[in-house]
Amino acid sequence: MQTLQHVFKVEEAEQKDSLLEILSDKYCRAILESTMDKPKSAIEITAEAGIPMSTVYRRIQTLHDNKLLKTSGIITDDGKRLFMYKSRIKGIQSRYNDGKTEVELILN
User: Fold this and answer.
1) Which InterPro entries match (predicted)?
2) Which residue from 2, 45, 83, 105 has the highest number of Cβ atoms inside 10 Å of its Cβ?
3) Which CATH number fits the domain 7-107, given the four candidates 3.40.50.2000, 3.40.190.290, 1.10.10.10, 3.30.70.3270?
4) Looking at residue 99, what is its pLDDT?
């Protein structure tokens, strides 16, 4: 059975550099992996990945700024706002060939 993957090719050099930097960060990778299948709160990500809460929030901001995380919110029964995060990507493919860097995002 074949599945259709939606692939987005990144053209801007600055965006390629940002994505490759994110890919090299173990905390960013852990957050993307944790939120790939279903949305999770920062507390759930911290518990699952073992990353300190302050680091989770900093990396979430980086991932959100680079459009790799989708943010949604809910209001809990006690009236508090709870933000949920879900990965917009399933993977990143990069190639370095003849002095050119190619980066493609596999969309979630």
Assistant:
1) WH-like_DNA-bd_sf, WH_DNA-bd_sf
2) 45
3) 1.10.10.10
4) 85
Alpha-carbon span 35 to 27, nearest angstrom: 12
Please report, for the chain, the start and end positions of each structural domain, with discontinuous segments joined by +. 7-107
Task: Give the pLDDT score at 80.
Answer: 86
Q: Is pLDDT of 3 > 80?
A: no
SS (H, E, C) the chain: CCCCCCEEEECCHHHHHHHHHHHHCHHHHHHHHHCCCCCECHHHHHHHHCCCHHHHHHHHHHHHHCCCEEEEEEECCCCCEEEEEEECEEEEEEEEECCEEEEEEEEC
State mean pLDDT over 20-39.
92
Give the mean model confidence (pLDDT) for residues 69-92: 89
- Look up tokens 């960060």; give the residue: 25
